[in-house]
Amino acid sequence: MTIFENTIRAVAICHTPYRQKFGIPRQPGLVDAHGFVELLPPFNDPDTVRGLLQYSHLWLLFCFHENLAQGWKNTVRPPRLGGNEKMGVFATRSTFRPNGIGQSVVRLHDIVRRKGKLCLEISGMDLLDGTPVIDIKPYIPFSDSVPDALGGMAQEAPVQIGVSYSDEALSQIAALAKGDERPNLASLIEGVLAQDPRPAYKKAKDDPKLYQVALYDLDIFWCIKDDKAHVLELKPTKV
Ligand code: SAM
């Protein structure tokens, strides 16, 4: 049964520091990433967000637009289970799902004009830069928070690993973190790498690989050293 043919459209686009899927936290609220939800016409009238600042958090409903072409399957192998065990797609938060819809709770900081566009300033999202947002709703604590709920395979937040830095990376971060261009760069890098974004099967064995995550306009190069994520250097992303 087709329900929404030609009626669902993007109401906004999310601008985030995450320029590739690798490295994005697997749920919201895990990393203090800052970004903007830019409202698109005809939804960019200030009336559409009148009253929204009374809420500290929002639900963003969005489209996993980068994965739509790959379709979906009945079962997926969640990274939480080491990538070995199959679970039903509806028992997971997999990005490969019928309709490709995701939902995340994010913190709302402000409603601002950015480059002339009406934007919601947010943090804590787990969304790729450019993600189309199909709806925005206030988070309502009395109803949306269920403190005694069972969390299945995801009862606790993922275990974090330590992060260390080369001298070069430390001085680069100090220099590049200045100004408004890359808010929270140092804590963003630390938060992203502490999630250990490596594929589950890599974590089980000795791992000499050089990894790279793209944050803002920077490629962050890192490896695993003494069981920590060790930041080696930062380079401007090649365009
Ligand atoms: N909190 C959401 C949910 O439960 O529906 C998303 C969870 S999903 C496991 C989070 C992952 O989605 C991120 O780690 C990233 O790899 C991926 N992702 C984020 N934005 C995406 C997009 N626009 N297209 C495809 N994948 C995306």
UniProtKB/TrEMBL annotation:
Residues in domain TsaA-like? 8-148
Entry keywords, A to Z: S-adenosyl-L-methionine
The record's listing under NCBIfam families reads:
tRNA_TsaA
- Similarity field: Belongs to the tRNA methyltransferase O family.
Name of the protein described by the UniProt record = tRNA (N6-threonylcarbamoyladenosine(37)-N6)-methyltransferase TrmO
Q: From which source organism is this entry?
A: Shewanella jiangmenensis
**Lineage summary:** Bacteria, Pseudomonadati, Pseudomonadota, Gammaproteobacteria, Alteromonadales
- The gene that this protein is the product of is tsaA
